[in-house]
Write a structure and sequence with these properties.
Order of helices and strands: HHEE
Distance between the termini: 39 Å
Strand content: 5-15%
């Protein structure tokens, strides 16, 4: 009886070590992905804010080119710069919104996966075994 108990305990210990190593690998993978998508979200926010600023500058140049008619070359140059700045700013806003939305969604997804991983050994007198829990 003691031999069977010793064999079961040894098998449970070995299985716990191998499962624990696999869980640690997934944990590190998920933590790395969370950090990657956090950077993506932050870059998206920065891109959106920069795009708003550049669009405002472009709009200001467009407005000033219409009211400033000292020389036609100055007005057309301001108009051209205003159109370019406003267009690039709008593109930056769209890209930033997409980056921040995707990053935030993926962060939430991988945090949920990270919280769903758990494993352990049950050492109660009534029950002896290994628990592996994956909630989905």
């Amino acid at each position: 009886m003691k031999n069977i108990f010793l064999i079961v305990m040894s098998a449970a210990f070995v299985l716990n070590i191998s499962l624990s190593a696999q869980m640690d690998q997934k944990k590190y993978l998920y933590e790395g992905k969370i950090e990657k998508f956090r950077k993506m979200r932050n870059k998206g926010i920065a891109l959106t804010v920069s795009g708003i600023g550049l669009s405002a500058i472009g709009t200001g140049l467009l407005i000033s080119s219409q009211s400033d008619h000292n020389t036609e070359d100055d007005a057309s140059l301001k108009f051209l710069y205003g159109v370019c700045a406003a267009e690039i700013g709008v593109d930056m806003i769209i890209g930033g919104i997409i980056f921040s939305a995707v990053g935030a969604r993926k962060i939430k997804q991988y945090k949920k996966k990270l919280n769903n991983l758990s494993m352990g050994i049950i050492y109660t007198p009534e029950k002896l075994g290994i628990s592996l829990t994956y909630r989905f």
